[in-house]
Amino acid sequence: MSVSVRIPTILRTYTDGASEVSGEGATLREVLQKLDADFPGIGARILDETGKIRRFVNVYVGEEDVRFVDGLDTATPEGAHISVIPAVAGG
């Protein structure tokens, strides 16, 4: 399944400055694996050493925060928009 992945500014060094890239996979896990294969190193910035989404990274498939759906097993249908968003702290 072909999807689009929006890349935050801080990770664009991995995508040669591209703000959006194409991805493939039936689940978010598959999309992120393919993304890391196409752009080596980006996966380690999104996933921690145990393979879970980093605490301060939010990932959305469409409008759904994957933490409240099926996590890395969230379905990524054809044409889905995936957004990787670093959390912002402030006070």
Describe the structure.
The chain is α+β, with helices and mostly antiparallel strands and 91 residues long. The protein has helices spanning 28-38, 42-46, and strands spanning 2-6, 20-24, 57-61, 64-65, 81-86. A 5-stranded mixed beta sheet has the order 2-1-5-3-4, covered by helices on one side. The longest helix has 11 residues, at 28-38. The model has no long low-confidence stretch (mean pLDDT 95). InterPro entries: Beta-grasp_dom_sf, Mopterin_synth/thiamin_S_b, Sulfur_Carrier/Prot_Modifier, ThiS/MoaD-like. This is MoaD/ThiS family protein. It comes from Sphaerisporangium dianthi.
Offer a quick outline of the entry.
It comes from Sphaerisporangium dianthi. This protein has helices spanning 28-38, 42-46, and strands at 2-6, 20-24, 57-61, 64-65, 81-86. The longest helix has 11 residues, at 28-38.
